[in-house]
Amino acid sequence: IKKIGVLTSGGDSPGMNAAIRAAVRAGFYYNLEMYGIYRGYEGMIQNDIKKLHSGDIAHVLERGGTFLKSARSADFRTTEGRQKAYNNLKSHGIDALIVIGGDGSLTGAHLFYKEFGIPAVGLPGTIDNDLSGTDATIGFDTACNTAIQAIDKIRDTATSHDRLFFVEVMGRDAGFIAINAGIGSAAAAILIPEKKMAIEELVEKLRIRTKAKKASNIVIVAEGGKSGGAAEIAEKVKKHLPYYDIKVTILGHLQRGGAPSSYDRLLASKLGVSAVEGLLQGKYDVMAGLINHKVVYTPIKRAIVDDKEVDEDDFRVAKILST
Ligand code: F6P
């Protein structure tokens, strides 16, 4: 392997820049040529590919977003699109890839390896934390910190007005951000897709808290919940608790931005280096992750299987603390 292409794809996450920088630095350390593929697989198809120099990665470690930009490519799902992408890679002499993204992005890398034999190492880049083979994905810790800071602010005004707030957090169909931010912000209840909570149970919980004269009530709702988002849940609860002044806040994309936390910088840096080293050691079609502080390479096919579960104990702790 002499030339490696790096791309970020799917929803961006804080720490992607740090991961790119680490991979490119490691590539230079091992005397490789490093290429930036802009706008993910879309840029690969449109030949938006440039050789990277050390100046390109100066002062990016601490910045949110991804300077390589990101996209969700519909064309890469087609055989013609992937063929075009392959031709472009070959025209640059790129013989391996580092793909930073979530399950869709890593699925693309896996398919591409199967079809064209382009060795790839994936890095888990998503705020959702929904990939197996790593304790945390790059950006998850920052997103949780951002959510907690926002919820702290909501609590100030919720307490001043004796209001009940429903705060919706991201996570697609996973509840990792919700459970983490919920525990970290002393939520009255946390609704996640993985655990059903009947409206009656939630209402009862809120009634008990009212009797106990709790200063404020904030319910965290994961966006992918089966009973609906924060607005729908609030609507249903309102019917049972009409005397409550209820407000809804959807945190949305602010959870995806901002400077990466210390943990995400370390995680991204370790994984960026491991991606290059993995390729040099012949580890193809794998995702590099961190488990118990050790780098682990997991076959991409295994990493994208949707079986990473919210820790039962986190849920138990959240329940105890919100009673
Ligand atoms: O996967 C990251 C994520 O932020 C999810 O939490 C969210 O459901 C989705 O992306 C939003 O995607 P988009 O930015 O395309 O609206």
UniProtKB/TrEMBL annotation:
The active site is at 128 (proton acceptor). Its cofactor is Mg(2+). It catalyses: beta-D-fructose 6-phosphate + ATP = beta-D-fructose 1,6-bisphosphate + ADP + H(+). ADP binds at residues 21-25, 155, 214-216. One of its GO terms (molecular function) is 6-phosphofructokinase activity. Its EC number is 2.7.1.11. Homotetramer. This is ATP-dependent 6-phosphofructokinase.
